[in-house]
């Protein structure tokens, strides 16, 4: 009875929250919170609540902005969908199910894509801000929120004694803290521009800040830095400076600003929420006070391990000068000398003291037209990404401002690719602040360029090229074979960074790993009997030297494996060395530090069917100085985090195995469907631990065999 009373109390609160919440996303979050709390009460019938709430929640799901949802909220939505699927026919309509599923699909499709960002035009400047949104009147925890702000600056009468400041949306009273922070930030911005460009303190302006905060519940003074940077950029468009400034749309600013231009410390709990929100968004960079950088970096590193492929860079600053002088944050478009003089002359054309000789203007214009922009001293010549132009069979290299720097044409038609940042292909290998460009061409047919690693300097000069396949060391690997381009990785070791190239082929499936130093010299090679990726460079034995860790699939053994190589000596072929389909007795045995097999579970045998297990959904990580954590994916049927997690000690022995919540849920679903037997989880995990298999000089041995020998 107490369960029923508690659920009815929660339902009453939900009815209240659904009326009060303004945004459809908030209404849906309130509903998800309710159902997360009640679906575990299996003894209580929930049909009446499903009939009452699901139709209205499905409608708001259809109206919700899919970009607003964070991973934990998406998981809550998926749990609700799973729960609705097992309800009796007629309780939930198919139309409502489609609305929920449609929102989940939008979230997943857009998870790797950036929204189309339209920068402010004319005198307006766009800037991205991060807040912590709080809900004192709703039953929801605080969460990070991204909001956009536009800033305009326009001149006002010379008789005005001070700037006119308007902050739209957040303010409710003329002298509240947002307006006070805006005034302080504008003073700081003006002081910076006076020092840098000579802005007169006698001029006054109207600053108009508009924050798209419809339905937002944020508090605090987090707009301080954004107010100042917005004012700096807006004034550069109103005044005739040599530079036109704009704010990168892929950067978010968060932090208060003191009256003397210093970034003030922020609340660590709020910073954690903001960092989490920025990480799961289109943003590339987050600006925070410098003193919080170590704390935020720790959080980002943990998130990157949980979500491989996602990345968020952090920038720390102590003063507004440091923020404004960072080219990643404030983009500078410098006018040519001719254009600058012309603008000045046009603006002051009625002033008797301005005389610009026609010949000087003409010469400056000719100089600007004849000399390419790349030769101007302010031109950014550092590669940031490249795209593959299949029609012209070339790569085109761009800087961060999307200006093409140079291109390289290859023989044969290249496989097409999308223009995006390749973090492992553009990298500062020399440590001089300039990025090198790495590329392995893959053509539709045989060509002299295919399967070669090409490395270029930031200027487009080829530094070296090396052949990636390893010939004559594995069946069918000869000069007539064309390989598929796999990946390029950069492994950062103690004193240097090394290049890892991977090419692969089928029948039999194998991957060729080659290792190169920054000069292009070969450091070693390795062939795996299947496919896989480089995961991390870690010091796993505490000797001060990092090892190279790969998550791979061994096709001959039909399971996932952990491969560990020492960077100072790498050669040979992975086990096994006996196989019925072709002769492996002659291959050179690998000198790997470890090769550990993780057998597929009974759940994996059903959900993965003939597919190969993916290596690791969350990445390898060090739980401590002596514990290695390896999660292995066992289901791809909508249960991406259905993993078995293996813990290895310093001797690289598995001593603990645990299941994720999603693994347990998925397996229990299959038990109810009669596809798997009920198990004792302690015994199940112990059996998995004992079937982990290690390669030794004398062959394969399981953890169970080692434990049995040790007990005798």
Q: What does it look like?
A:
By secondary structure, this protein is an alpha+beta fold. Helices cover 30% and strands 25% of the residues. It contains 16 helices and 30 strands. The strands form seven sheets. A seven-stranded mixed sheet has the order 3-4-2-1-6-7-8, with helices on both faces. Strands 21-22-23-24-29-30 form a six-stranded antiparallel sheet. A four-stranded antiparallel sheet has the order 13-14-15-16, with no helix packed on it. A hairpin with a 5-residue loop joins strand 11 and strand 12 (404-409). Helix 2 packs across helix 4 (71-85), helix 3 crosses helix 5 (94-110) and helix 11 packs antiparallel against helix 12. The longest helix is centred in the N-terminal third of the chain and has 21 residues, at 177-197. The protein is globular and about 90 Å long.
């Amino acid at each position: 009875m107490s369960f029923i009373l508690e659920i009815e109390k929660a339902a009453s609160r939900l009815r209240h929250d659904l009326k009060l919440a303004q945004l459809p996303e908030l209404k849906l979050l309130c509903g998800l919170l309710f159902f997360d709390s009640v679906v575990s009460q299996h003894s209580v019938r929930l049909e009446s609540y499903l009939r009452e709430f699901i139709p209205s929640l499905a409608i708001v799901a259809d109206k919700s902005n899919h970009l607003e949802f964070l991973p934990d909220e998406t998981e809550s939505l998926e749990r609700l969908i799973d729960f609705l699927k097992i309800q009796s026919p007629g309780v939930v309509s198919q139309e409502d199910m489609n609305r929920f599923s449609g929102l989940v699909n939008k979230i997943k499709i857009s998870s790797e894509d950036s929204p189309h960002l339209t920068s402010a035009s004319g005198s307006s400047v766009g800037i991205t801000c991060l807040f912590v949104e709080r809900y004192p009147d709703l039953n929801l925890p605080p969460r990070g929120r991204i909001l956009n702000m536009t800033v305009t600056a326009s001149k006002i009468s010379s008789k005005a004694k001070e700037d006119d400041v308007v902050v739209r949306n957040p303010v409710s009273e003329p002298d509240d803290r947002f307006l006070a922070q805006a005034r302080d930030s504008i003073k700081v911005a003006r002081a910076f521009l006076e020092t840098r460009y000579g802005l007169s303190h006698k001029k006054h302006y109207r600053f108009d800040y508009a924050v798209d905060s419809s339905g937002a519940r944020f508090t605090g003074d987090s707009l301080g830095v954004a107010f100042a940077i917005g004012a700096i950029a807006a004034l550069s468009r109103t005044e005739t400076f040599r530079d036109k400034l704009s704010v990168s749309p892929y950067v978010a600013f968060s932090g208060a600003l003191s009256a003397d231009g210093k970034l003030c410390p922020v609340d660590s709990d709020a910073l954690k929420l903001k960092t989490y929100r920025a990480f799961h968004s289109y943003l590339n960079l987050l600006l925070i006070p410098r003193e919080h950088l170590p704390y935020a970096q720790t959080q980002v590193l943990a998130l990157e391990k949980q979500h491989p492929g996602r990345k968020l860079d952090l920038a720390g600053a102590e003063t507004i000068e440091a923020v404004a002088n960072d080219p990643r944050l404030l983009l500078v478009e410098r006018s040519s000398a001719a254009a600058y003089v012309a603008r000045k002359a046009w603006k002051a054309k009625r002033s008797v003291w301005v005389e610009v000789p026609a010949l000087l203007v003409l010469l400056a214009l000719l100089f600007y037209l004849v000399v390419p922009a790349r030769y101007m001293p302010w031109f950014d010549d550092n590669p940031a990404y490249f795209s593959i132009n299949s029609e012209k069979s070339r790569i085109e290299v761009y800087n961060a401002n999307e200006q093409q720097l140079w291109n390289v044409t290859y023989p044969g038609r290249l496989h097409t690719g999308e223009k995006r940042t390749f973090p492992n292909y553009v990298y500062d290998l020399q440590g001089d602040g300039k990025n090198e460009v790495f590329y392995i061409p893959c053509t539709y047919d045989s060509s002299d360029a295919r399967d070669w690693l090409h490395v270029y300097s930031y200027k487009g000069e080829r530094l070296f090229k090396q052949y990636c396949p390893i010939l004559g060391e594995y069946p069918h690997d000869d000069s007539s074979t064309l390989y598929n381009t796999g990946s390029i990785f950069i492994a950062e070791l103690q004193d240097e960074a090394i290049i890892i190239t991977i090419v692969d082929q089928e029948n039999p499936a194998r991957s060729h790993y080659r290792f190169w130093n920054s000069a292009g010299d070969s450091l070693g090679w390795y062939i795996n009997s299947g496919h896989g990726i480089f995961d991390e460079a870690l010091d796993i034995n505490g000797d001060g030297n990092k090892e190279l860790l790969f998550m791979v699939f061994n096709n001959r053994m039909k399971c996932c494996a952990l491969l560990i190589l020492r960077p100072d000596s790498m050669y040979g072929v992975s086990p096994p060395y006996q196989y019925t389909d072709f002769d492996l007795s002659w291959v050179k045995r690998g000198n790997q530090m470890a090769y550990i097999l993780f057998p597929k579970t009974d759940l994996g045998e059903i959900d993965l069917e003939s597919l190969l297990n993916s290596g690791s959904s969350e990445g390898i990580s060090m739980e401590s100085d002596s514990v290695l954590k390896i999660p292995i994916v066992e289901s791809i049927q909508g249960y991406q985090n259905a993993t078995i997690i293996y813990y290895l000690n310093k001797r690289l022995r598995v001593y603990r195995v645990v299941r994720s919540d999603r693994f347990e849920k998925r397996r229990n679903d299959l038990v109810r469907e009669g596809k798997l037997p009920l198990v004792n989880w302690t015994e199940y995990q112990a059996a998995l631990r004992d079937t982990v298999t290690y390669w030794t000089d004398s062959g394969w041995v399981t953890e169970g065999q080692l434990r049995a020998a040790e007990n005798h």
